[in-house]
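Support request from a user on the community tier.

User writes: "When I paste my structure tokens into the form, the page sometimes reloads and wipes my input. The last time it worked, I copied everything first. Here is what I submitted, just in case something in the input itself triggers the reload:"
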């Protein structure tokens, strides 16, 4: 199975989003699709999913290949309970039986037993038979329960109507359905936006160990680094494709640009020297042969180019914070309930001036609720004191959606700006990458990241000393997130960040407040210290709750229980064997590619050492060396994956 993207071109109102893009999605590829907001990542997923048509070019999807697509935004109108809705994920089993019958009939009619097509047909039948055997076992209910609890639902939620849940939780239900169908290719557009840290970690493990091919758009660097083994960056209508995760890709891309620049500068110097020689001796008869030779040499040179880099960037700096009291927030026995549901109670903590803290925990455990208490938007029990001269700047996670779509970018800011700041609106918009014509765009045509940036500008319109940011990184690209993180670190006021983005919180906060089970617990240290302590605590809890094995009289088991156990064991064993086979094959293919490139480099070096090498030999050597580095990275990743699975 491989999906081929061929010469793709997409144009929107005379602007070229993609231009002649081609690449292949292979079986078991875990691809991070990255790029700035507005680069076309979501559009690329829609085209692969068949929802949107390109201006030209095509996407070739092999017959019987299944694609699952989770969009960034969707309208959901189901009326069932959670478990009933998720159970619909298994309605495809009938279709799988029909496909198996078709493949069986086709196989019976063929006699080209040695051909690749015949072998591919057998492999397709085997994979389909395995999937049917696994999904028809009594494991379906267990898989549904495992997936729903992994995504943050409690068992009490299973029989609740889906209509009772917020949009974020409804997205989780759709994600659960998608994961349970086990498509050949998963297309996920910002799947972590509505997940908490624990659910993100569960999804990471699922995608690495159980998913087939994955194409992932996410601005959560830790998530894509842990899941993906290939990075495709979309930039200025082109793509850059490397067989490594994002962090390694960034380093390799920087090296590539540096090498290109060095080679380009060397070539430019050689061209200038040649042109100077021609100009100096053009009219000297004694040098006419050399001059003609240099002119021919110059004409034959293949001019090097340096990859075009998108240099536009956000310029973000929060105004200096006016001095507040020593303790901007003091909570004593704080509680909040909605009817009989106690969100949290007896929360007691103090946030000092200048501290940067994180609120983390599962969705619905009270993080945003406590923020609303601090903002004075809702009533509460207990005591909550806001310190002397505290001025709050608040960014809500739904603020971008609350913007008026019919206003222009300029008018949106013009309506809230007061005093001297009104004369600087254009400058501020330019700093947030809304310069020139972009400031006259209507809000409704902006991408999610652009709307988030626009909402962020409001925080800069007046100096504050307590920043409260509720999921500020949703929809922001990685470069913009890095700039926002740096600006918050430099901010000399107090900061409360509600976020599930581990990489964003790492090195930013010095204290974590965990929300869960109706409590708010303080944990000193950064986000990774908190996660490590939490892992140890959960292991200790598990050991404490593990029942001691005691001898019990043997009772005759029901035949149905034995059958279920056999089916579970068979299904899991088959799935594991298949994963091991595929992982081993991937290692072997990576080793073969490393050996091939090492031989190619040795052959090139032999040509160089023989003297009088062709003019392109050094470029070929540099390319082969870079390809070898990528191949070694691929081999390392494949070996790690094989060891983990085996």
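"...and here is what came back when it finally went through:"
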């Amino acid at each position: 199975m491989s999906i081929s993207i061929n010469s793709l071109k997409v144009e929107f109102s005379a602007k070229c989003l993609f231009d002649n893009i081609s690449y292949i999605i292979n079986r078991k590829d875990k691809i991070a699709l990255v790029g700035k907001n507005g680069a076309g990542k979501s559009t690329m997923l829609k085209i692969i999913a068949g929802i949107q048509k390109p201006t030209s070019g095509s996407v070739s999807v092999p017959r019987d290949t299944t694609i699952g697509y989770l969009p960034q935004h969707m309208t959901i109108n189901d009326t069932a309970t959670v478990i009933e809705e998720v159970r619909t994920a298994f309605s495809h089993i009938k279709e799988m039986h029909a496909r198996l019958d078709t493949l069986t009939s086709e196989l019976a009619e063929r006699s080209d037993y040695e051909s690749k097509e015949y072998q591919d047909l057998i492999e397709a039948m085997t994979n389909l038979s395995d999937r049917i055997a696994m999904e028809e076992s009594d494991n379906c209910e267990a898989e549904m329960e495992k997936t729903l609890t992994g995504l943050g639902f409690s068992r009490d939620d299973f029989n609740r109507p889906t209509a009772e849940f917020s949009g974020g939780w409804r997205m989780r239900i759709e994600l659960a359905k998608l994961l349970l169908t086990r498509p050949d290719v998963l297309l996920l557009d910002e799947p972590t936006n509505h997940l908490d840290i624990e659910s993100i970690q569960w999804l990471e493990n699922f995608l690495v160990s159980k998913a087939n091919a994955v194409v992932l758009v996410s601005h959560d660097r830790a998530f894509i680094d842990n899941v993906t083994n290939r990075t495709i960056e979309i930039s200025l209508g082109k793509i850059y494709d490397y067989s490594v995760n994002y962090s390694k890709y960034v380093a390799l891309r920087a090296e590539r640009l540096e090498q290109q620049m060095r080679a380009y500068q060397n070539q430019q110097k050689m061209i200038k020297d040649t042109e100077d020689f021609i100009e100096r001796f053009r009219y000297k008869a004694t040098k006419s042969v050399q001059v003609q030779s240099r002119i021919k040499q110059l004409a034959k040179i293949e001019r090097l180019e340096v990859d075009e880099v998108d240099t536009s960037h956000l310029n973000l700096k929060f105004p200096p914070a006016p001095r507040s009291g020593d303790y901007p927030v003091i909570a004593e026995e704080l509680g909040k309930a909605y009817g009989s549901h106690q969100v949290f109670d007896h929360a007691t903590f103090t946030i000092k001036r200048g501290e940067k803290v994180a609120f983390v925990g599962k969705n619905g455990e009270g993080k945003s609720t406590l923020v609303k208490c601090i903002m004075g938007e809702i009533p509460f029990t207990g005591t909550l004191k806001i310190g002397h001269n505290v001025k709050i700047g608040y960014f809500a996670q739904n603020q971008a959606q609350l913007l008026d779509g019919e206003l222009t970018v300029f008018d949106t800011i013009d309506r809230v700006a007061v005093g001297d700041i009104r004369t600087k609106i254009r400058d501020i918009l330019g700093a947030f990458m809304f310069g020139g014509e972009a400031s006259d765009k209507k809000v409704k045509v902006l991408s999610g990241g652009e709307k988030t940036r626009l909402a962020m500008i409001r925080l800069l319109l007046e100096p504050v000393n307590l920043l409260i940011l509720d999921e500020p990184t949703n929809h922001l690209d990685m470069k913009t997130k890095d700039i926002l993180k740096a600006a918050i670190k430099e901010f000399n006021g107090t900061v409360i960040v509600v976020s599930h983005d581990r990489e964003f919180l790492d090195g930013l906060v010095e204290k974590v407040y965990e929300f869960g089970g109706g409590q708010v617990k303080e944990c000193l240290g950064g986000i990774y210290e908190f996660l490590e302590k939490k892992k140890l605590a959960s292991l200790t809890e598990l050991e404490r709750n593990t029942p001691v094995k005691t001898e019990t009289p043997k009772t005759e088991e029901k035949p149905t229980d034995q059958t279920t156990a056999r089916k579970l064991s068979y299904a899991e064993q088959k799935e594991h064997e298949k994963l091991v086979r595929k992982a081993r094959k991937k290692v072997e293919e990576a080793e073969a590619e490393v050996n091939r490139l090492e031989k190619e480099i040795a052959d090139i070096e032999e040509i160089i050492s023989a003297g009088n090498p062709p003019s392109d030999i050094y470029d070929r050597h540099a390319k082969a060396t870079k390809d070898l580095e990528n191949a070694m990275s691929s081999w390392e990743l494949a070996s790690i994956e094989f060891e983990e699975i085996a």
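Agent notes: The reload is a front-end session timeout and is unrelated to the input. The first strand starts at residue 2 and ends at 12. The chain has 19 helices and 18 strands. Escalated to web team.
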